[in-house]
Amino acid sequence: MSPRQAVDAVTADIRDHHITADGTGPFNAMRHIDLLCHLTARMAADAEYQIASNIAYLPPAATLGASAGHLGRAVAHYTQALAPLITLTTTAQDTLQQKLDSLDHHSRLRIHLDDASRALTAARTALEVPRPPAASSASAPGPLHAPAARRRA
């Protein structure tokens, strides 16, 4: 699977497993963080060490590194979303003050999830950079002039 296909697969999984303010919300958030961490580590390793089995089909290291950076931002936003999410799922909302507080938690949760989504989009966009044309099979030109010979004294 290419890096772009991997980002698409993780994005589809995230889209299919919504984060809600109920008992499944924290589980899905941790699932998303796990998938994103794995993908980020893989792209960073491919960028740094070029260890993938299909190395000829990988984008340039700078492109993989940029995409891994965006994925890292997505992980950070999902991690920041955990605090309001856990508060929403573990705190009773019986009083008016608790209901008003939950509005702030919902707002912060939405902000972090939207920022994570933008980071995923940026990671995919970074992988859409056109690859340089393949090197031609023509032989490399020779030196323009011969190296100077040393004189003996």
The termini sit apart by 64 Å
SSE-based structural type = mainly alpha
Task: Tell me the β content.
Answer: under 5%
Largest sheet: none
Unreliable residue runs: 136-151
- Globular, elongated, flat, extended or rod-shaped: what is the shape? elongated
The residue-averaged pLDDT reads 82
What is the helix/strand order? HHHH
Given the structure, what is the number of helices? 4
Question: How many DSSP E strands?
Answer: 0
Radius of gyration: 24 Å
Helicity, in percent?
55-70%
Structure description:
The protein is an all-alpha fold and 153 residues long. Helix content is 66%, strand content 0%. It is built from 4 helices and no strands. The model is unreliable at 136-151 (pLDDT under 50).
Brief description of this entry?
The protein is mostly helical and 153 residues long. The protein is built from four helices and no strands.
Keywords:
153 residues; mainly alpha; 4 helices
Itemize the secondary structure elements and their pairings.
Elements: H1 3-16, H2 24-49, H3 61-90, H4 96-126
Helix pairs in contact: 1-2, 2-3, 3-4
